[in-house]
Amino acid sequence: MSENIKINVNGNQIESTPNKLLIEACEDSGIHIPRFCWHKRLDPVGMCRMCLVEIETPRGKMLVPSCTTEVTDEMVVDTESEVVKKAQEGVLEFLLINHPLDCPICDKAGECPLQDQTMAYGPGESRFVEEKRHFEKPISISEIILLDRERCILCARCTRFSDEISGDPLIEFIQRGNKTEVNTFPNEPFKSYFSGNTVQICPVGALTSTSYRFKARPWDLKSVRSTCNGCPVGCSTELNSSQNKMLRILGVDNDSVNQGWLCDKGRYNFEYLNSEFRLKNPLKKIDNELKETSVKEIYTELSELISDRNTNINFLIGTNSTNEDYVAFNEFAKNFPTTNQTFYLNDDYLYAGFFEQDINRATIDDLNNSEAIVIWAEDLKENLPVLYLRVRQAVKNGVKLIVFGHSNSTLEDIADFYYSEDIVSENFEIIKDISKLKGIKEHVKDKNVTAIIGKSTPYQLDEYLDKLVSYLVENSNSKIMNAFSSGNTFGAINNLDNVKNLRDFTKNVSSENTDLLFIVGSDPIGRSVFSNEIHRIIEDIDNVVCLDLFLHETSELCNYIIPTSSTLGEKEGTFTNIEFRTSRIDKLVPSPGQSLSDWEFISGLSNFCNFINNIDSLDGLNELAYQDFDNQDSPSFKNLDKPSNFDGIINDYQPNVSTMPNETITSQYFVGKKLYGDNITIRYSDSISLLGAKQFIEASESTIEKLNLSSGECTLKQNGHQVSANYVVNNKLADGVIFIPQNRRNFNRFDFSETIEISPNQSKEALNVN
Amino acid sequence: MKETLLLTKHMRENPEDSHLIDSYEKNGGYETARRTLINGSPENVLEEIKASNIRGRGGAGFPTGVKWGFLAENEDRYLVINADESEPGTFKDRILLERDPHQLIEGIIITCFAANIKNAFIYIRGEYAKPARRVQDAVEQAYQKGYLGKNIFNSEMNLDLVVHLGAGAYICGEETALLNSLEGRRGEPRLKPPYFPAVKGLYMKPTLVNNVETISSVPWIVENTGKEYNKLGVEGSTGTRIFSLSGHVNNPGNYEIEMGSSFGEFVESLGNGIRNNKKVKAYIPGGASAPWFRGDQLDIKMTIDDVANNNSMLGSGAVVMMDEDTNLVNAAKSIVSFFAHESCGQCTPCREGTTWLEMILDRVASGRGRASDIDLLLDVCDNISPGLSWPPKMTTICPLGPSAVSPITSLMNDFREEVESLIPTKVLL
């Protein structure tokens, strides 16, 4: 490490490290310099001029922006001189002359850096008597973001975020001088998966989101720190509520994980909590009709079935539960020693993964610290969006990127090597000798490598991935990150003894070996590619208990339905992310009606049946989850609630995932997930509900030509099942590869191992003649 | 007083076809470059430029030889000719581009030879359509003759020259904004530090940015030696300089003279005096960004240092005369309006401040001023350029904001009564 240097700020010696920005060095020593455009995670631009300070130079004192000036040894800085104060007051006056000062109706008021710094550093009154600059306000720049250009102070935080961090520069400055405004390009909305971050970092109320507009004042908000359970990245969040309603989710700057950013799904997929369609009371199916009942009645009926401890029970368990929920189910299952209970995780893509002793596990930070990143997994941008941002960041820092397969085409632009056509087959098999590929030879062999490995499509064979991983393990100093993409998968495999996947479910489970099936927070019929098989199996089984937030295609089939609390803001617990980093999930709002947490229901049932378990308190479950760990490293509530551990604790548990490798039949289609889909929570979150509504398929231009498509629309048909969709040209896809989004409505009902007839939509073509 | 024609000699003698390669070659054109590339050495060229003591003609007056010496070592280095001549009052580069483009190209070839550069660019202001056409044609002629491209003059040297037309932004004359614009970005000045063009310039590679007139002088200096050039003019301001004379003079135009005579002499002899035999009330010595001189300061010498010692700048060599009938508040307003219109919008003080100044001046000029407006004007100026000193201190990234302050401080320092006379003293009910 480089040696510390000393600088003199306002007459006091402070220590810092060379090349640090002056504004940061001062911040570290508790000296606050006001700023608008500077943001720790963005490149400095020195535009707002609020952070001007005086430094001593051979030519006398000079005003410099502290956000672009690096500290040097013996630097003498004055942040409070009369010249500095005058300049800062001047800048604030300039910023305010054209600011509408509509604070009383502005969402930002109360947490607004412009308000706060005007109070602290600004002039007392206005000398500006002319007409202010006017713009139409607000204009909608995407389905979820509104822009008020009058409030904008042109700090370039949103434009820089879009350009530097998310890599989709759809929001830019236009015009110049006094007429400069931020805007999107004509006919190109701000269609970014990360647009919500710009709202969060906007230092005024220029960017607002539809979901929060006019809903609350900051001083009325209650907030807790929690962890997003939308995908295994596990971003740190702050949840905000007012009057017991969840109103907003903000990203918290967790240096090792999300660095303050969230994807828009993580940020806006919460409105369903307040939906009138939430289940509020337990339901029981009588004569094929769901009738309200009580939990006690359900307990009574279930206890008759299970109290002899000889019932064949299986679990189809979702990835939206907390670790404590999983522990409760696991302990509960131990009450049935003679039968073979299995936990089938609601995930099409789950497979055994790479957890062996000889494999080093990667953390997200390893991306930055390696020489090369190898990715062969589901599309990161669609499935692990913030991990995608971290990969982009690493590449920006000079790490080489090697991408395999057809899935991560959004990374092609920044990848040093994108191996798709001719190297990866339509079935996602690397058909060339890995060791002979230029990118591997030059940047992977004998280098420090972080690999993100997962199934690109549910039909990919495990052995294809094995080949690449064994090459990496043998030929490089590699660390592997298993890219499972749904919710708290890592918590589940950490805490459940025997985890299998949905394919195994369709092969193993039947009414013959299952007397009772628990379906927890899962809608495989509505979402999985095994929809049809699972539908048949569930229909066959006599007793099916469902724990969920909503009625949906799967829960409708069940005999008993228990309303549950959402893991988002309605219960406490822990979450384990892709690095096995466990962090806190916290409760902010009450859950509706008689909703129970998963663990509360199962522990109640256990008690009702007089099973002896230690699962009747959350703390007990939490202790049970981590009883094998050293007290200090254990991610127990006690440890996690220490401020030094807010960012989570990583464990090295060896999980037991024992999926069957799939057979040789593979799909001829590239089946994948999009960020927004037709799932139940998005359907009931008004502001994003339409984002997953578009029906489409993707293929390269030549593939589309071969299919004889020309009207812009097509129909997919198979055995009487039919979906009409647009087709989108994606020339980054290899020839012959057709991408089908499984999580858009009704696509998952196709049997992708059989041919789907894709024909042009005739009637539309006729319409397009004119 | 007489002109000394170095750069404008060829165009004066061949007014019909000075821009054509045949005419240029007939008069000895490209011979210097040819000889230099075949027999000369880069070190010698640099020595001559240093010996000439020529200072940049773009406005800042930085010694050209020193600038070339700063260029960092790198495989890829670039030369960018700043032909974004937009300073109000300046029109000297225009004739060099329009009427003697081959002289510039020859200068570029020699410069690139000296600095081991293989790619050069000419960035021409968007409004200069005709000069740009002439330069483009000239570049094509030079390529055809083998003076550009591979193995120039059958030597080892390769050089590609690209002509780029701006889109009409004054700020792109600021060298780092020019580089941004050339790269296809918004024309906004870069932060200095860390982006000094000689180290991190075009595409973050070491880049020489030189003015048209500076590089057009290179063939003469190399041909006649730096020592000869150094004999012209006076110490600190050697050589000739093309001054653009405009305003209330009888004979406005471009005049190439040795530096060292006084402004008064220049206006009287070459400018043929002020129109209608009026007196000079004030004049701008070096383009719209320069603080003004009063009519009683006409004996100041036209050298970089003399003007600087009198708290203004010789800048781009634009001399603008304002006679005794001029409404100086209006004059200041039109200059401030120009800068407000041309502000890139990056820095808050310039973006908001210049427009505000324009609004206040407009109020004052039209008789709607308030008694507090003079203090307000000065204080707003102070918030853009703290201390209102010369050379200006800045709260901004580049000097465009402080440029809008210059006419106002000149007005307030020397012509305050004129401003005050426009402000109604009584409250009108």
Please name the defining characteristics of this protein:
heterodimer, A: 770 residues, alpha/beta, Ubiquitin-like (UB roll), Alpha-Beta Plaits, Rossmann fold, eight-stranded mixed β-sheet, 23 helices, 24% helix, globular, B: alpha/beta, de novo design (two linked rop proteins), five-stranded mixed β-sheet, 18 helices, 11 strands
What does this protein structure show overall?
- By secondary structure, chain A is of the alpha/beta class.
- Chain A has five domains: 5-80, Ubiquitin-like (UB roll), CATH 3.10.20.740; 130-274, 2-Layer Sandwich (Alpha-Beta Plaits); 302-351 and 489-628, 3-Layer(aba) Sandwich (Rossmann fold); 360-482, Dimethylsulfoxide Reductase, domain 2 (3-Layer(aba) Sandwich); 670-767, Beta Barrel (Barwin-like endoglucanases), CATH 2.40.40.
- Helices cover 24% and strands 21% of the residues of chain A.
- Chain A contains 23 helices and 36 strands.
- In chain A, helix 8 runs parallel beside helix 14 and helix 8 (323-333) packs parallel to helix 18 (598-608).
- The model of chain A has no long low-confidence stretch (mean pLDDT 94).
- Chain B is of the alpha/beta class.
- Chain B has three domains: 9-230, Rossmann fold (3-Layer(aba) Sandwich); 232-323, Ubiquitin-like (UB roll) (Roll), CATH 3.10.20; 328-420, NADH-ubiquinone oxidoreductase 51kDa subunit, iron-sulphur binding domain (de novo design (two linked rop proteins)), CATH 1.20.1440.230.
- Helices cover 43% and strands 13% of the residues of chain B.
- Chain B has helices at residues 9-13, 21-26, 31-39, 42-52, 64-70, 92-99, 101-115, 129-145, 175-182, 212-224, 226-231, 263-269, 304-309, 328-342, 348-365, 373-384, 400-414, 416-422, and strands at 78-83, 119-124, 160-165, 207-211, 233-234, 237-238, 240-247, 253-258, 280-284, 293-294, 318-323.
- Chain B has a five-stranded mixed sheet, with no helix packed on it. In chain B, strands 3-2-1-4 form a four-stranded parallel sheet, with helices on both faces.
- In chain B, strand 2, helix 8 (129-145) and strand 3 form a beta-alpha-beta unit.
- Chain B is globular.
- The termini of chain B are far apart.
- The relative contact order of chain B is 0.12.
- The model of chain B has no long low-confidence stretch (mean pLDDT 96).
- The A-B interface holds A 44-50, 52, 62-63, 68-69, 83, 86-87, 89-91, 93-95, 97-98, 127-128, 130, 153-154, 173, 175-180 and B 169, 171, 186-187, 191, 193, 340-349, 351-356, 359, 372, 376, 380, 382-384, 386-387, 393-397.
